[in-house]
Structures are given as C-alpha cells and as structure tokens.
Amino acid sequence: SSGINAEYGERKEDCLVCSREVREMSRGRQDTLQNLLEYLSEEHTLQNPIITTVTAVGETRTVYMAGIGQLKDNVDKKLTELDLVDGQEIVVTDSILKSPVRFKLKFED
C-alpha cells in the first residue's frame, strides 16, 4: 500500500450540475418557451441553453437551440403548444455547464 489517500470534496446539494438529481421546475401552463429561457438565464445564469426532451414514444426531440431557425420560432409558443406536459423531463445543456442538467416540468395552473 502506498498510503496515498485521495480526498474528494463533498457535493453541494444545491449545485446545479454536481447534484445530478432531477430538479423540479414549476412553470405556468401559459408560459412560453421565452419565459423558460429567461428563467434559465436569470436563475441559473445559463447563456445559450439547448433544451431537449424525450417524447412519449422514446424519441429525443430538441425543443430549442439558438441558431436553428425552425427551433428559434418556438420561443413565442406556449410550453403546452410544444407538447410539453406536466411531469415531463427536459434536459438542458449549456456551454457553461460541465454536464447536462435534468428538470422535471411541473405546471402550477
């Protein structure tokens, strides 16, 4: 035995990335994708998020990615118009994140 003991820092429960748990995200049914993007920018300081989800039939679908014309048109649509439902998981990636973050969508109204 070499006697080397590597110590690892503890994960912070409130850390967006290192907690690796699915976080609940409460939104209103009337919220648009733009509202969601503003929330991610303000609450989590994300700069250029990419939002994906898995459909009911198991296909990965990109909801938003800047620079993709058709997806940029989604910003004015309500989350429900994008076929997002209560309890659905969305995955958010961003250049400032080390790994994707998973959110569970919860509609408040």
N-to-C series of helices and strands: EHEEHEE
Please tell me the overall pLDDT: 84
Strand order of the largest sheet: 1-5-4-2-3
- Poorly predicted sequence stretches spanning 5 or more consecutive residues: 1-9
Q: Please, how many helices?
A: 2
Which bin fits the share of residues in helices?
Answer: 10-25%
Percent strand: 15-25%
Total strand segments: 5
Rg (CA only): 17 Å
What is the oligomer described by this structure?
Answer: single chain
Largest sheet: 5 strands, mixed
Class per helix and strand makeup: alpha+beta
| Distance between the first and last residues' Cα | 60 Å
Molecular shape: globular
Would you mind describing this structure in some detail?
With 109 residues, the protein is α+β, with helices and mostly antiparallel strands. 15% of the residues lie in helices and 25% in strands. The protein has two helices and five strands. The chain has a five-stranded mixed sheet with strand order 1-5-4-2-3, with no helix packed on it. A hairpin with a 5-residue loop joins strand 2 and strand 3 (60-64). The longest helix is centred in the middle third of the chain and has 12 residues, at 33-44. The termini are far apart.
Give a short summary of the structure.
This protein is α+β, with helices and mostly antiparallel strands and 109 residues long. It is built from 2 helices and 5 strands.
